[in-house]
Amino acid sequence: MSTQHETELEQDPPEDGVARYLEQNPDFFVRHPDLVTQLRIPHECGEAVSLISHQVQVLREQNRKSARRLDELVRVARDNDRLSERLHRLTLDLLDSSDLDAVLHALKDGLREHFSADMVAVRLFDSSKLQAKHQDFIAPEDSSLSHFRRFLQDEKPVCGRLASEQIAFLFGDSAAKVASAALIPVSDRSAMGLLAIGSYQADRFHASQGTVFLRQLGQLAGRALRPHLSH
Q: Looking at domain 97-228, which CATH architecture does it have?
Protein backbone atom coordinates (compact mmCIF):
# COMPACT_ATOMS: atom_id res chain seq x y z
CA MET A 1 0.00 0.00 0.00
CA SER A 2 1.45 3.39 -0.97
CA THR A 3 2.18 6.18 1.51
CA GLN A 4 -0.66 8.21 0.00
CA HIS A 5 -3.17 5.40 0.59
CA GLU A 6 -1.89 4.89 4.14
CA THR A 7 -2.36 8.61 4.82
CA GLU A 8 -5.90 8.52 3.42
CA LEU A 9 -6.83 5.54 5.59
CA GLU A 10 -5.45 7.30 8.66
CA GLN A 11 -7.44 10.48 7.92
CA ASP A 12 -10.77 8.84 6.96
CA PRO A 13 -12.95 6.84 9.37
CA PRO A 14 -11.93 3.14 9.26
CA GLU A 15 -14.81 1.99 7.05
CA ASP A 16 -14.57 5.02 4.74
CA GLY A 17 -10.86 4.48 4.35
CA VAL A 18 -11.33 0.79 3.48
CA ALA A 19 -14.07 1.65 0.99
CA ARG A 20 -11.92 4.34 -0.63
CA TYR A 21 -8.98 1.96 -0.94
CA LEU A 22 -11.09 -0.80 -2.51
CA GLU A 23 -12.60 1.71 -4.93
CA GLN A 24 -9.12 2.77 -6.01
CA ASN A 25 -7.90 -0.84 -6.18
CA PRO A 26 -10.64 -2.86 -7.90
CA ASP A 27 -8.29 -5.81 -8.43
CA PHE A 28 -7.64 -6.21 -4.68
CA PHE A 29 -9.65 -9.45 -4.35
CA VAL A 30 -8.08 -10.79 -7.54
CA ARG A 31 -4.75 -10.48 -5.80
CA HIS A 32 -6.15 -11.86 -2.51
CA PRO A 33 -8.69 -14.55 -3.51
CA ASP A 34 -8.46 -16.29 -0.13
CA LEU A 35 -10.24 -13.31 1.48
CA VAL A 36 -13.32 -13.76 -0.70
CA THR A 37 -14.41 -16.91 1.13
CA GLN A 38 -14.39 -15.00 4.43
CA LEU A 39 -16.62 -12.14 3.29
CA ARG A 40 -20.31 -11.94 4.19
CA ILE A 41 -22.30 -10.06 1.54
CA PRO A 42 -26.10 -10.07 2.01
CA HIS A 43 -28.43 -10.14 -0.99
CA GLU A 44 -31.61 -8.06 -1.06
CA CYS A 45 -34.03 -10.89 -1.71
CA GLY A 46 -36.01 -10.97 1.53
CA GLU A 47 -36.13 -14.24 3.37
CA ALA A 48 -35.11 -16.18 0.28
CA VAL A 49 -31.46 -17.11 -0.01
CA SER A 50 -29.85 -16.77 -3.41
CA LEU A 51 -28.13 -19.80 -4.93
CA ILE A 52 -24.82 -17.96 -4.97
CA SER A 53 -25.11 -17.11 -1.27
CA HIS A 54 -25.91 -20.72 -0.46
CA GLN A 55 -22.99 -21.99 -2.52
CA VAL A 56 -20.60 -19.55 -0.87
CA GLN A 57 -21.83 -20.61 2.58
CA VAL A 58 -21.38 -24.30 1.73
CA LEU A 59 -17.88 -23.71 0.36
CA ARG A 60 -16.97 -21.67 3.41
CA GLU A 61 -18.08 -24.48 5.74
CA GLN A 62 -16.23 -27.07 3.67
CA ASN A 63 -13.13 -24.93 3.89
CA ARG A 64 -13.40 -24.80 7.68
CA LYS A 65 -13.89 -28.57 7.90
CA SER A 66 -10.92 -29.19 5.62
CA ALA A 67 -8.74 -26.90 7.73
CA ARG A 68 -9.77 -28.71 10.93
CA ARG A 69 -9.14 -32.08 9.28
CA LEU A 70 -5.72 -30.97 8.10
CA ASP A 71 -4.83 -29.76 11.60
CA GLU A 72 -5.90 -33.14 13.00
CA LEU A 73 -3.82 -35.05 10.45
CA VAL A 74 -0.79 -32.92 11.23
CA ARG A 75 -1.25 -33.54 14.96
CA VAL A 76 -1.56 -37.30 14.46
CA ALA A 77 1.53 -37.34 12.23
CA ARG A 78 3.53 -35.49 14.88
CA ASP A 79 2.33 -37.86 17.60
CA ASN A 80 3.31 -40.87 15.47
CA ASP A 81 6.74 -39.38 14.86
CA ARG A 82 7.26 -38.95 18.59
CA LEU A 83 6.11 -42.51 19.31
CA SER A 84 8.41 -43.87 16.63
CA GLU A 85 11.37 -42.00 18.09
CA ARG A 86 10.61 -43.26 21.62
CA LEU A 87 10.24 -46.84 20.43
CA HIS A 88 13.57 -46.52 18.64
CA ARG A 89 15.27 -45.38 21.87
CA LEU A 90 13.74 -48.27 23.79
CA THR A 91 14.89 -50.71 21.11
CA LEU A 92 18.48 -49.46 21.41
CA ASP A 93 18.34 -49.82 25.20
CA LEU A 94 17.10 -53.41 24.90
CA LEU A 95 19.81 -54.25 22.34
CA ASP A 96 22.44 -53.06 24.81
CA SER A 97 21.11 -55.39 27.55
CA SER A 98 23.27 -58.48 28.01
CA ASP A 99 21.22 -60.58 30.45
CA LEU A 100 17.68 -61.14 31.72
CA ASP A 101 17.82 -58.62 34.54
CA ALA A 102 19.25 -55.99 32.22
CA VAL A 103 16.48 -56.55 29.66
CA LEU A 104 13.74 -56.26 32.29
CA HIS A 105 15.38 -53.19 33.78
CA ALA A 106 15.72 -51.51 30.37
CA LEU A 107 12.10 -52.35 29.50
CA LYS A 108 10.62 -50.93 32.71
CA ASP A 109 12.86 -47.88 32.92
CA GLY A 110 12.43 -47.18 29.22
CA LEU A 111 8.64 -47.13 29.54
CA ARG A 112 8.84 -44.81 32.53
CA GLU A 113 11.42 -42.48 30.98
CA HIS A 114 10.44 -42.40 27.30
CA PHE A 115 6.69 -43.00 27.60
CA SER A 116 5.91 -41.36 30.96
CA ALA A 117 4.45 -44.56 32.41
CA ASP A 118 3.42 -44.14 36.05
CA MET A 119 3.67 -47.88 36.73
CA VAL A 120 4.94 -50.89 34.80
CA ALA A 121 4.28 -54.56 35.55
CA VAL A 122 5.69 -57.64 33.81
CA ARG A 123 4.53 -61.23 34.25
CA LEU A 124 6.36 -63.84 32.19
CA PHE A 125 5.29 -67.47 31.87
CA ASP A 126 7.97 -69.90 33.01
CA SER A 127 8.11 -72.94 35.29
CA SER A 128 11.87 -73.27 35.75
CA LYS A 129 13.08 -73.32 39.34
CA LEU A 130 15.50 -70.45 38.82
CA GLN A 131 13.05 -68.09 37.21
CA ALA A 132 10.15 -69.10 39.45
CA LYS A 133 11.95 -67.19 42.21
CA HIS A 134 11.92 -64.00 40.17
CA GLN A 135 9.00 -61.62 40.94
CA ASP A 136 8.38 -60.99 37.24
CA PHE A 137 7.74 -64.69 36.48
CA ILE A 138 4.69 -66.83 36.99
CA ALA A 139 3.98 -70.48 36.24
CA PRO A 140 1.69 -70.91 33.21
CA GLU A 141 -0.67 -73.03 35.31
CA ASP A 142 -1.00 -70.44 38.10
CA SER A 143 -4.67 -69.94 39.01
CA SER A 144 -4.24 -66.13 38.99
CA LEU A 145 -4.07 -66.23 35.21
CA SER A 146 -7.73 -67.24 35.10
CA HIS A 147 -8.53 -63.50 35.33
CA PHE A 148 -6.79 -63.06 31.97
CA ARG A 149 -8.27 -66.04 30.12
CA ARG A 150 -10.08 -63.96 27.47
CA PHE A 151 -7.08 -61.69 26.99
CA LEU A 152 -4.71 -64.63 26.54
CA GLN A 153 -7.04 -66.21 24.01
CA ASP A 154 -7.30 -63.05 21.90
CA GLU A 155 -3.63 -62.02 22.31
CA LYS A 156 -4.52 -58.40 21.58
CA PRO A 157 -3.67 -55.27 23.61
CA VAL A 158 -6.47 -53.92 25.80
CA CYS A 159 -6.77 -50.32 26.99
CA GLY A 160 -8.97 -48.64 29.58
CA ARG A 161 -10.09 -49.59 33.05
CA LEU A 162 -9.11 -53.17 33.84
CA ALA A 163 -11.03 -55.49 36.14
CA SER A 164 -10.21 -55.07 39.82
CA GLU A 165 -8.77 -58.61 40.02
CA GLN A 166 -6.45 -57.90 37.11
CA ILE A 167 -5.24 -54.60 38.55
CA ALA A 168 -4.63 -56.17 41.96
CA PHE A 169 -2.65 -59.03 40.41
CA LEU A 170 -0.50 -56.74 38.29
CA PHE A 171 0.13 -53.76 40.59
CA GLY A 172 -0.34 -55.18 44.07
CA ASP A 173 -0.43 -52.54 46.81
CA SER A 174 -0.40 -49.75 44.22
CA ALA A 175 -3.55 -50.99 42.48
CA ALA A 176 -5.72 -48.26 44.00
CA LYS A 177 -3.66 -45.59 42.22
CA VAL A 178 -4.29 -47.02 38.74
CA ALA A 179 -7.02 -45.03 36.98
CA SER A 180 -6.41 -46.53 33.52
CA ALA A 181 -4.05 -49.06 32.01
CA ALA A 182 -2.81 -50.78 28.87
CA LEU A 183 -2.51 -54.57 28.96
CA ILE A 184 -0.16 -55.94 26.31
CA PRO A 185 0.68 -59.54 25.35
CA VAL A 186 4.41 -60.24 25.36
CA SER A 187 4.93 -62.58 22.44
CA ASP A 188 7.49 -63.94 20.05
CA ARG A 189 5.87 -66.62 17.88
CA SER A 190 3.79 -67.59 20.94
CA ALA A 191 2.51 -65.97 24.15
CA MET A 192 5.29 -65.38 26.65
CA GLY A 193 3.64 -63.21 29.27
CA LEU A 194 1.90 -59.94 30.14
CA LEU A 195 3.10 -56.37 30.09
CA ALA A 196 0.98 -53.73 31.83
CA ILE A 197 1.36 -49.94 31.83
CA GLY A 198 -0.59 -48.17 34.56
CA SER A 199 -1.54 -44.50 34.69
CA TYR A 200 -2.85 -42.23 37.42
CA GLN A 201 -4.96 -40.45 34.78
CA ALA A 202 -8.36 -41.90 33.86
CA ASP A 203 -8.15 -40.68 30.25
CA ARG A 204 -4.57 -41.79 29.53
CA PHE A 205 -5.73 -45.17 28.18
CA HIS A 206 -9.20 -45.75 26.76
CA ALA A 207 -10.95 -48.47 24.79
CA SER A 208 -11.22 -46.48 21.55
CA GLN A 209 -7.54 -45.71 21.08
CA GLY A 210 -5.34 -47.50 18.55
CA THR A 211 -3.23 -50.47 19.61
CA VAL A 212 -0.78 -50.91 16.72
CA PHE A 213 2.06 -49.37 18.69
CA LEU A 214 1.23 -51.43 21.78
CA ARG A 215 1.27 -54.64 19.74
CA GLN A 216 4.70 -53.69 18.38
CA LEU A 217 5.89 -52.97 21.91
CA GLY A 218 4.81 -56.44 23.06
CA GLN A 219 6.60 -58.08 20.15
CA LEU A 220 9.74 -56.05 20.79
CA ALA A 221 9.75 -57.10 24.45
CA GLY A 222 9.24 -60.75 23.46
CA ARG A 223 12.10 -60.71 20.98
CA ALA A 224 14.46 -59.09 23.51
CA LEU A 225 13.51 -61.59 26.24
CA ARG A 226 13.53 -64.76 24.13
CA PRO A 227 17.28 -65.54 24.39
CA HIS A 228 17.08 -65.39 28.19
CA LEU A 229 14.04 -67.63 28.79
CA SER A 230 14.35 -71.36 29.36
CA HIS A 231 11.64 -72.24 26.82
A: 2-Layer Sandwich (3.30)
